[in-house]
Amino acid sequence: MRKFRALLVLLLIALALAILISSIILQQSESPRLYSYRVVKIYPHDPNAFTQGLVYEEGYLYESTGLYGFSTLRKVELETGKVVQLRELPPNCFGEGIAIVGDRIIQLTWREHGAFIYDKHTFEVIGEFSYSTEGWGLTFDGQRLIMSDGSANLYFLDPKTFQIVAKVEVHDRKPVSGLNELEFIEGRIYANVWMEDRIAIIEPEIGKVVGWIDLSGIYEDRKKPDDVLNGIAYDPINKRLFVTGKRWSQLFEIEIVEK
Model-level pTM greater than 0.70? Predict the structure, then answer.
């Protein structure tokens, strides 16, 4: 009888594992959902801002801009586009993604392998940390910082020690490289793809792209090849999604619409 029970337990465990593996395989093989957009409202945006990172909080946008000699951290009124607070980066630093963690703002730099930690209220530098990759996009999921480096990889960092605690490769049948500005929205990562007018919606733990937002045609007044879509912010209270781009004169509140 004991042998029979032990065998039954083993069979049940094997069945549970088989179901789990089948579920994972099925999830991995499902095609991403395809979305378009509807513009809800248009706000002014500084056409000189080479947008690298964007976060919304309590009526303001916190924005990181790039280019050597022109990189900034700024606080911007959503409704007017007015810059109400600004800090310039050293001329040898190229500003990249930002994230708000409590009363701190974390700002990456591109090829300088280092990030600045600011007091959110004063914009004073209160710390720094380094990383081995390039710095591109950054967001915060409430527990971990999530960073991109222009590859298909996403890195999860402890927000206190800034050590990498996990890493995933983002894929849609094949690796999706060029991951840039990031925003964590209701359990998923939204990522700009460098030089493309689309946003990937990513399942964080497995790196699978579960959706694509096609933003073709949203902004046509582009003067230079790198005036591309880059900048995602989310208002979790009012469920508003904002997007903009490098040197765009407009910021868009959009609703995503399934195709």
Answer: yes
